[in-house]
Amino acid sequence: MSEPIPPPEAKRRDFRNFFQSVGYALEGFRAALKHEPSFREDLLFMAVLTPLAVILPVNAVSTAVMIFSLFLIVIAELLNSAIEWTIDDISLAKRPFAKRAKDMGSAAVFLAYINCIVVWGVILYSNWNRIATLEFLKWPPPFLP
Fold first, then answer.
1. Does residue 99 sit within a domain?
2. Which GO molecular function annotations are given, in alphabetical order (predicted)?
3. Are 70 and 45 in contact (CB under 8 A)?
4. Domain of 119: which CATH number?
5. pTM for this one?
């Protein structure tokens, strides 16, 4: 008969644990930057569109939703990469369930892109009368003396 499994240790909850968690998150971010071309492309996409979302003449909530839709792409890409690396670490053999899991991760990224396109499209369409005049590009802006 096998030995009983001891209960897991309780995790400590203090600032050292918080900083350690932040360190792990930064390591993951650096690993994605180094090893994932798709992640780098998504960050570039986000870096180009975030300033545009900020300068467009839409309300603050619309700007926040536009930026969040960009973050959602990056988040989905990170999760997809984590799934793919985990499956590849277990075995590089072709297995139908592994393929299905990888395809589902890719589908999540695809849906995040579709979501971004729809969000941006709806917001741009509903504010097109202000955007088309290009008034927001005139310098100096009206709030400066």
1. yes
2. ATP binding; ATP-dependent diacylglycerol kinase activity; metal ion binding
3. yes
4. 1.10.287.3610
5. 0.83
